[in-house]
Amino acid sequence: KAGVTQTPRYLIKTRGQQVTLSCSPISGHRSVSWYQQTPGQGLQFLFEYFSETQRNKGNFPGRFSGRQFSNSRSEMNVSTLELGDSALYLCASSSRTGTGFGYTFGSGTRLTVV
Amino acid sequence: AQSVTQLDSQVPVFEEAPVELRCNYSSSVSVYLFWYVQYPNQGLQLLLKYLSGSTLVKSINGFEAEFNKSQTSFHLRKPSVHISDTAEYFCAVSGPSGTYKYIFGTGTRLKVLA
User: Fold this and answer.
1) How far is CA A29 from its chain centroid?
2) Which of B90, B102, B107 lies at the smallest CB-CB distance from A99?
3) Can you tell me whether residue B7 is helix, strand or coil?
4) Which of A60, A93, A111, B103 would be a feasible disulfide site paired with A25, CB 3.0-4.6 Å?
5) 3-state secondary structure of B83
6) Mean pLDDT highest for which of A36-40, A52-56, B18-22, B36-40?
């Protein structure tokens, strides 16, 4: 059974550019969440989607956006990149709604903004 | 607001020695509790979780954690560690009902020494 797949694994962008990260959840999983991991702030919740609906968004500026497609694949977009957006972006999926069932995380996309 | 505190940022321990990684949480409502492990250049893997019932939960690789409601703690223990246990360990609580997110601690880097 394939795990959560995130592409690309590594990305280098310049300040002011925009970037799109992709996440393919485990087959059959309909809930997809995104987290940002940095040495200073740790793991911070970005957003959660279920059946193409964003159910919650973390405390991030509007430059961070996401969406989920009908096949449960998800993308997140960051516009007007800043140096502070350099981070490991983790996607996680779950077969059930609610956090009690646990999420399976992908290996992440490491974004470096220069 | 809910929060998670992992007091130890780094824990060095010799191989075959016991280890305890501490986790305290703050919440005014019932929560689900989790331990995740992150190996270098990888995503997070669910180690174990407490939802309800027995306060002692165990993983398949010898880790265990005990939920202590009065002390609001969920410490992770292993009686004998291996070199392969070297990783970063994150404690997490489920966010308030309907938020579909985790609140993570800052992580504890376990380094097992030969």
Assistant:
1) 15
2) B102
3) coil
4) A93
5) helix
6) B18-22
